[in-house]
Amino acid sequence: MYVLLVYDIKERRVGKMLKLCRQYLHWIQNSVFEGEISEVKLKELLLKAEAFLDLDEDSVLVFKSCTQQWLQKEVLGQERKRLDAFL
Amino acid sequence: MYVLLVYDIKERRVGKMLKLCRQYLHWIQNSVFEGEISEVKLKELLLKAEAFLDLDEDSVLVFKSCTQQWLQKEVLGQERKRLDAFL
């Protein structure tokens, strides 16, 4: 399934979250990731995130769809390079 | 159509962008908006944004779908209250 993951996290935990998300998804903007991922892998990602996030202060939104085809994307400005390829 | 709009914008322009987006969409997280919007209204929003954004530094991503039904949403932590209703 295709997901979009967006987080809003206190600065001191951002580095850890960024590193975690890059293991599973592609980084496309400051706090936005996208990619193909299985339900199991997504659950794994979210469980790992929950372990260090403070859910009173932080939030993570995940938008799921069965296929990326229905999503049209429009970009103003620069989309982040796919640095993830090097991880 | 249903859209998700996510921006990554230099701090000095964030207030203006927030105010603009809240005129068209619902605020769901720090720099994330969602909602039903027509192509024409979306174009209007993006044109207004382009007028004050610096597209070398800022970026705006818009994900579009014909219907929200395709999107399942999962939330960790708090989703922002719909303050937009009061605007």
Automatic annotation (TrEMBL), chains A, B:
Mg(2+) binds at D8. Its EC number is 3.1.-.-. Keywords: Antiviral defense, Endonuclease, Hydrolase, Magnesium, Metal-binding, Nuclease. Pfam families: CRISPR_Cas2 (PF09827). InterPro entries: CRISPR_associated_Cas2, Virulence_VapD/CRISPR_Cas2. Gene3D superfamilies: 3.30.70.240. Its cofactor is Mg(2+). GO terms for biological process: defense response to virus; maintenance of CRISPR repeat elements. GO terms for molecular function: hydrolase activity; metal ion binding; RNA endonuclease activity. CRISPR (clustered regularly interspaced short palindromic repeat), is an adaptive immune system that provides protection against mobile genetic elements (viruses, transposable elements and conjugative plasmids). CRISPR clusters contain sequences complementary to antecedent mobile elements and target invading nucleic acids. CRISPR clusters are transcribed and processed into CRISPR RNA (crRNA). Functions as a ssRNA-specific endoribonuclease. Involved in the integration of spacer DNA into the CRISPR cassette. Belongs to the CRISPR-associated endoribonuclease Cas2 protein family. Homodimer, forms a heterotetramer with a Cas1 homodimer. NCBIfam families: cas2. This is CRISPR-associated endoribonuclease Cas2. The gene is cas2.
